[in-house]
Request: fold
Amino acid sequence: MGAISLLRILLWKLGFEWANLKRILRPQDDRRIYYFTFGANLSPKILNERSIEIFESFDFVLKDAELRFTQSGFYKDHAFASADPAPGGKVYGKMYLIRESDAERMDYYEGVPFLKAHDKVFDALDGKPFYYYRSRKPTEGLKPTQEYLDYMTTAYHDMDCVPDDYIKAMEATEVLTTFELQTLTGKFIHDINSWPKIMHPALVKYEAICRRMIEITWNWSLLVWLIKT
Reply:
């Protein structure tokens, strides 16, 4: 169990660096794809830190989905945003045209390969494909950090498509104020009930340590600084 989890984390980081290296070696790759974002990537600061080049950007409303804080994060009750299925619902965000090589890099930032945190969902707009991320295992009762929420609401104020009452409701979202070790399992311990109960506390702690390791290394890279946008 321990070796497999550590291998997944190692492969995730190695895959991320490989994706960065391909981006560096092929800076003029013209293949592009639309990416719909509704979370922290609404912030130019985050895009700059991740060296994601934007060729086109416009406000977009994803239908039959709802923004919910159901993506379990690094701490107890910690959440990231997810565009969960919801007939008649709407998710407000931005559509970015980015390089396919940057889309591959974004997959690693979103924990798709090996960590399996999100599903990558494809759709089409006017016959052109786009994608977005959705929590693979939605969890209710979670809260975003104030910093994360601010990335979103700051962007909303500059987006004509977002209703004022929606912005106010989002700004009133309860945020995480204490940062305790994660008590949920599911990312690395998939079925805790299949283990003897006497082992549950140790398994919960093990999962928390794995998630903490991911948080520490999340934006760590030897190569990203070499990517020119």
Observations:
- The chain has one domain: 2-25+32-226.
- Strands lie at 32-37, 56-72, 79-99, 118-125, 128-135.
- The chain has a mean pLDDT of 93.
